[in-house]
């Protein structure tokens, strides 16, 4: 069913999508399930294009997050600091292209991303110390792999080419230290990326479907789910909400079958 809906969308190429980079942007996240996503995509079809690469509209991604030994990036987010950073390697599995990225959020809620292309998935960060020192607070820290994830992504852009929408599904986590895995099943993470307060058709659709805004850091949620030694108080309500969504979706599937 999902693929049939995606096939009805008008396509844009990677080159065309590149004009809507929005590296300095406002991000708004929503969490739903595959059932909610199907309705969302049906309602949004006339207002958005879909990115298509070599005939594919669902693209596989993998990410490897780094942190300090004291998990300072996780703890800064958990402590509620509005200004924070994440260091990660993002790999586009369909092309094999990877980037070392520093993702920064300021106290006004804007996200800025700096990145360089790299050839390997698990790099020796000492080889990129100059980049990290220039772009990150943690450039001189000892950084080690903390969490990896894998997911498939749908990327939409509105008709005016002023807003990008990423939809991540089939999300899986692997903790690089504890070895614990977590499959998020039917969970879907929707992220609206805009340069300022431009008009957003998808926000109206999300409101109609009663899909509420919900912060969802893949790094922090993944770490909280796979390492019980970490502080989790700030994320407990969000974790419970996610678990309820998954349980409700699984129960609905049992009833349908």
Structure annotation, total helices: 8
Low-confidence stretches: none
> Portion of residues in helices?
25-40%
Beta-strand content estimate: 35-45%
Keywords:
257 residues, alpha+beta, single chain, globular, eight-stranded antiparallel β-barrel
Structure description:
- With 257 residues, this protein is an alpha+beta fold.
- It is built from 8 helices and 11 strands.
- The chain has helices at residues 2-7, 14-17, 34-44, 72-78, 129-135, 201-208, 218-226, 236-256, and strands at residues 10-12, 24-33, 48-51, 59-68, 84-92, 97-105, 110-118, 143-158, 163-175, 181-183, 187-194.
- Strands 2-7-6-5-4-8-9-11 form an 8-stranded antiparallel β-barrel, surrounded by 6 helices.
- β5 (84-92) and β6 (97-105) form a beta hairpin.
- The chain is globular and about 50 Å long.
- The protein starts with a helix and ends with a helix.
- The model has no long low-confidence stretch (mean pLDDT 92).
């Amino acid at each position: 069913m999902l693929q049939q809906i995606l096939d009805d969308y008008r396509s844009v190429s990677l080159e065309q999508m590149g004009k809507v980079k929005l590296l300095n942007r406002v991000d708004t996240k929503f969490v739903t399930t595959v059932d909610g996503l199907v309705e969302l995509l049906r309602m949004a079809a006339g207002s958005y294009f879909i990115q298509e690469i070599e005939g594919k509209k669902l693209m596989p991604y993998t990410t490897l997050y780094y942190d300090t030994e004291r998990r300072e990036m996780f703890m800064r987010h958990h402590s509620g600091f509005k200004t924070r950073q994440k260091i990660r390697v993002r790999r586009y599995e369909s092309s094999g292209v990877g980037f070392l990225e520093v993702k920064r959020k300021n106290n006004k809620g804007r996200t800025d991303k700096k990145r360089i292309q790299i050839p390997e998935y698990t790099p020796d960060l000492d080889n990129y110390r100059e980049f990290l020192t220039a772009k990150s607070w943690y450039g001189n820290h000892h950084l080690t792999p903390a969490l990896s994830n894998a997911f498939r992504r749908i990327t939409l852009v509105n008709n005016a080419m002023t807003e990008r929408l990423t939809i991540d599904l089939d999300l899986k986590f692997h903790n690089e230290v504890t070895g614990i895995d977590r499959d998020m099943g039917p969970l879907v993470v929707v992220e609206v990326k805009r340069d300022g307060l431009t008009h957003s058709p998808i926000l109206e659709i999300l409101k109609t479907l009663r899909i509420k805004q919900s912060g969802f850091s893949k790094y922090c949620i993944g770490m909280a789910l796979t390492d019980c030694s970490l502080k989790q108080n700030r994320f407990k309500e969000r974790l419970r909400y996610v678990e309820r969504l998954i349980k409700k979706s699984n129960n609905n599937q049992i009833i349908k079958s």
